[in-house]
Write a structure and sequence with these properties.
The complex is a heterodimer of chains A (322) and B (325). Chain A is built from 11 helices and 7 strands. Chain A is globular and about 50 Å long. In chain B, the strands form 3 sheets. A 7-stranded mixed sheet of chain B has the order 3-2-4-5-7-6-12, sandwiched between helices. A 5-stranded mixed sheet of chain B has the order 9-11-10-13-14, sandwiched between helices. In chain B, strands 1-8 form a two-stranded antiparallel ribbon. Classes of the chains: A alpha/beta (322), B alpha/beta (325).
Chain lengths: 322, 325
């Protein structure tokens, strides 16, 4: 894939959109406008953005509990996404799912997920469906370092490998499975090394460098699309906030470590790169920031002004034909 | 004259009916392709439908059930042949947290045409891990159809029906009935889900029993008839949805009810059916309703212990005699 200036600017816009969306979620969660839980993707924006940039609109994505970024990068409507988080009737799932169970069929997003590791088996479904129909679609499975230690990781990657399913497994290694550091839960240095055990390529990616993600994702997606089977990408990244909004105690992550990663903020790094290379000038950046801000304000207004679901419909959609 | 086939053959025919009717249907499982399934219950499928639609799987229940759920959401019709129902426990997250509620969680954006088939029930020392009747577990979860066929005719038609619905379905042929024969038309057919069948009419006591328990209850009904007790015997065929009307109609006539089931009693089939009858036909009852279940213990290996645990002819006769008094 040839990365034009236009594409680069679009990558920046998408990352910014995710960041600002998440900051709005944080604010409105703290104001109790948003019920339940909120796991923010801030700091990891480059992974979803770089990956989804090489997908076709009809390719599939399965996501995680930290999934708003995947939804946005895949092209989900910000209004309907925000409304779902607010538990409104106008949300993608009519308020039945919320943050950890967002599904958006119009962009082939087969769900964020409240169960760590559950998306791995599920992601094989679109892949075998595509294979049966010879449609050329690819299934991308996002999961974290925590899920990589669930049995579903082993079952799913082995099964995809042996059936040569068109899947790209994307491990977002943000160094902590909830609050457990990766070196306390995992003996090996890189999750990508495990790919060799399944007879598939494993690739280490700088998850804070959107161009590195895009380049390596492009190869993995092309490989899947051409019928050669899955790839395991390990994107090394970091979340800026806690496991969830309102997490008590943050001492499990050393301040020094947080400072180091803050210096490698994916949006700031890419912004500097774009300006230094003359892809866009600071005024252009500012204009994009204002445009995105407007979109987010609109999404919040849409969610806040949307009706609540009708309690009479609580049993609707348990069975087909309802 | 209608030819007779076994339940094992009926499973293969039920699969084939659905796979012919909807070409988007595929089946996965362990040893189901070339080998024809560990009971011989998928014989012929590979030849008729080819290796793209009949796939052998690694022993990865969570992996392949989840794969089927995802494919079903995308519009394929999926069958996961899981061998023994005991092995569904390895895929519980995918069944309960994903497949059963994916339509609901998504606000109706996705359908779930996935059917899981696992042989169920105790038979000749299968032991604690190959003998269980886990259907009450699944009855407790919204969004799962639960089918417990008692004979080859029903099995073929109900299995095809389950596959062709857009809901997650669990079909549980009884291991002890796999070689049981009955008349089954060669032609393709589909039976309605949620329709009980009155196996024999009677006036004194209604017995509701599915799967293998229906056969014990039928024997008991013969014996009870010799003692002057007329039993009305009902096979619910599907437990979700449950044909409440047929059961209520019968109880309103006989005034007495005994439920026999191979699942455990605690929050079980007996509790559910008796509660519903109590709610809707209390005034018609002439005696306390009774339920007969296995002893609440794991299913033991030794034949004498296995026998001690399970409901059988004598236990059913004893209970019905007391109810009828």
């Amino acid at each position: 894939m040839k990365v034009t200036d236009q594409i680069k600017i679009s990558l920046f816009r998408t990352m910014l959109r995710i960041r600002q969306f998440e900051m709005a979620v944080r604010e409105h969660f703290q104001k109790t406008d948003i019920p339940g839980f909120a796991h923010l993707y801030v700091g990891e924006e480059a992974v979803a953005t770089g990956l989804c940039a090489v997908l076709n609109p009809d390719d599939y994505v399965t996501s995680t509990h930290r999934g708003h970024g995947h939804c946005i990068a895949k092209g989900a409507d910000l209004n309907r996404l925000m409304a779902e988080l607010w538990g409104r009737k106008t949300g993608y799932c009519k308020g039945r799912g919320g943050s950890m169970h967002v599904y958006a069929r119009e962009v082939n997003l087969l769900g964020t997920s409240g169960i760590v590791g559950a998306g791995l088996p599920l992601s094989l479904g679109p892949a075998i469906h595509a294979k049966l129909n010879k449609s050329g679609q690819v299934s991308v499975c996002f999961f974290g370092d925590g899920a990589a230690n669930n049995g579903t990781f082993h079952e799913s990657i082995n099964l995809a490998a042996v059936q040569k399913l068109p899947v790209v497994f994307v491990c977002e290694n943000n160094l902590y499975a909830t609050v457990t550091a990766v070196h306390e839960s995992t003996k090996t240095e890189n999750f990508a090394d495990r790919a060799a055990g399944y007879g598939i390529p494993g690739v280490i990616v700088d998850g804070n460098d959107v161009m590195d993600v895009l380049e390596k994702a492009d190869k993995a997606v092309a490989r899947a699309r051409s019928g050669k089977g899955p790839t395991l990408l390990e994107c090394k990244t970091y979340r800026h906030f806690g496991h969830y909004v309102g997490e008590p105690g943050t001492a499990y992550r050393p301040q020094e470590e947080r400072n180091e990663w803050a210096k490698r903020d994916p949006i700031r790094m890419f912004c500097t790169h774009l300006v230094e290379n003359g892809t866009i000038d600071p005024e252009g950046i500012e204009a994009i920031e204002h445009e995105v801000e407007k979109e987010i304000v609109e999404a919040v207004e849409f969610a806040g002004n949307s009706p609540l679901p009708d309690p009479q419909t609580v049993a609707q959609h348990v069975w087909s034909g309802q | 004259m209608v030819r007779e086939i076994t339940c094992t053959q009926a499973i293969a025919e039920g699969y084939a009916v659905a796979m012919r009717k909807d070409p988007s249907t595929f089946i996965v499982g362990e040893g189901i392709a070339d080998r024809g399934g560990c009971f011989g219950h998928t014989t012929g499928l590979l030849v008729e439908f080819g290796p793209e639609r009949v796939l052998d799987m690694p022993i990865s229940e969570s992996g392949f059930v989840g794969m089927c759920a995802g494919a079903a959401a995308c519009g394929s019709r999926a069958i996961a042949d899981i061998m023994y129902v005991d092995f569904t426990t390895l895929a519980m997250d995918q069944i309960i947290n994903q497949a059963a509620k994916l339509r609901y969680m998504s606000g109706g954006q996705y359908e779930m045409p996935l059917t899981i088939v696992g042989v169920s029930g105790a038979n000749r020392s299968g032991g604690p891990h190959h003998s269980q009747s886990l259907h009450p577990l699944f009855m407790n979860i919204p969004g799962i159809l639960v089918v417990l066929p008692s004979n080859a005719y029903d099995l073929k038609g109900l299995l095809a029906a389950a596959i062709l619905t857009n809901d997650l379905a669990l079909v549980l042929p009884h291991r002890g009935l796999l070689n049981a024969r009955c008349g089954v038309p060669e032609k393709d057919y589909v039976l309605p889900l949620g329709e009980a069948r009155v196996i024999r009419e009677g006036k004194d006591v209604s017995i509701v029993a599915a799967g293998m328990m229906l056969h014990h209850a039928a024997e008991a009904a013969d014996k009870l008839s010799d003692r002057g007790i007329s039993v009305e015997l009902i096979d619910p065929r599907t437990l979700v949805p449950l044909d409440e009307n047929t059961i209520l109609k019968s109880v309103k006539k006989t005034g007495r009810l005994v439920v026999v089931d191979e699942g455990y009693s605690n929050c079980g089939v007996g509790a559910e059916i008796i509660a519903r009858v109590q709610e809707k036909a209390f005034d018609f009852l002439d005696a306390p309703m009774q339920r007969i279940h296995p002893v609440s213990a794991p299913i033991p290996f030794s034949p004498v212990l296995e026998h001690a645990l399970l409901p059988d002819l004598d236990k059913i006769v004893d209970v019905v005699m007391k109810v009828a008094r």
